[in-house]
Design a protein that fits this description.
The structure is a single chain. By secondary structure, the chain is of the alpha/beta class. It has one domain (3-164, 173-184, 200-262): Alpha-Beta Barrel (TIM Barrel). Helix content is 42%, strand content 14%. It contains 11 helices and 8 strands. It has helices spanning 3-14, 39-51, 68-83, 98-104, 122-129, 148-151, 161-172, 187-196, 214-221, 233-236, 246-262, and strands at residues 18-22, 57-60, 89-94, 113-116, 135-141, 178-182, 202-204, 228-231. The chain has an 8-stranded parallel β-sheet with strand order 2-1-8-7-6-5-4-3, sandwiched between helices. Helix 8 packs parallel to helix 9 (214-221). The longest helix has 17 residues, at 246-262. It is globular, with a radius of gyration of 18 Å. The two termini are 25 Å apart. The protein binds the ligand O=c1ccn([C@@H]2O[C@H](COP(=O)(O)O)[C@@H](O)[C@H]2O)c(=O)[nH]1. The ligand O=c1ccn([C@@H]2O[C@H](COP(=O)(O)O)[C@@H](O)[C@H]2O)c(=O)[nH]1 is lined by residues 21, 23, 61, 91, 142-143, 181, 183, 205-206, 208-210, 230-234. The active site is at residue 93. Residues 17-246 form the Orotidine 5'-phosphate decarboxylase domain. It catalyses: orotidine 5'-phosphate + H(+) = UMP + CO2. InterPro entries: Aldolase_TIM, OMPdecase_AS, OMPdecase_type-2, OMPdeCOase_dom, RibuloseP-bd_barrel. Its EC number is 4.1.1.23.
Amino acid sequence: MNFFDRLHDRIRTVDSVVSVGLDPDPSRIPDHLGEYDLPRWAFNRRIIDATHEHAAVYKPNAAFYEDPDGWAALEETIAYAHGKGVPVLLDAKRADIGNTTRQYAQILERVDAITVNPYMGRDSLQPFLADEEAGVFVLCRTSNPGGADFQDLELETGERLYERVAALADLWNEHDNVGLVVGATNEDELEDLREQVPDLPFLVPGVGAQGGDAEAAVEYGLANGVGLVNSSRGIIFAGEHDGERFASASGQAAKRLKSRLNQYRD
Ligand SMILES: O=c1ccn([C@@H]2O[C@H](COP(=O)(O)O)[C@@H](O)[C@H]2O)c(=O)[nH]1
């Protein structure tokens, strides 16, 4: 079954478009979890237990797992999320030349969806796009301040670079498996892109810690009711100073975000 059909079902089941970002910064994990072999996994397990009823997906960012214990923590996290029935979107921003990108795409055997970087062009994304079951979210207009440096450049045609990316991603969507990453911090661009590509679901990061606009994220992020609004630190570190009660604080934060976003859903 296609990722976006699975996501549609998941959104209906939990009545939520919240993507819970699993970015377990080791410097912020509660001290008492330090006694575990894999503190990041111990942390994520508790976060998943507390948030899964509100999570449309989990979005681990690969940056927080790129060391031997990290890979192990990520494997456990993916299996546990799947055990709870929650799809996993790996935020890895992948793509490279042919043989390398084919290797990168192997990860789709273990996760449901991935973020990719379009900068190297279509061939660098081909093995991801060819996987009909997986969701492929193409970076389009990112939430960071420097996102404008390249993405807002005006091309000879008069389009912005991010608009060209959206147009190409729409063409690459032969298997209905492509979405865009568009930050909640860019309200005008969100609106512009929704008009340009009405059928592509967006992954919208940047609400919560980055201060993006939750209403715009929902209004423009969803295509036919399908799309994702991500918060990572705002959920998983909501109870950073609550000691052993950190996980229940994250559950409450996920529930609050779900309710807030649901106000704006049709
Ligand atoms: O444009 C982008 C693309 C990806 N991200 C990622 O989303 C989360 C956001 O974390 P918060 O703690 O909610 O700010 C993180 O993994 C980023 O790498 C993004 O923020 N913006």
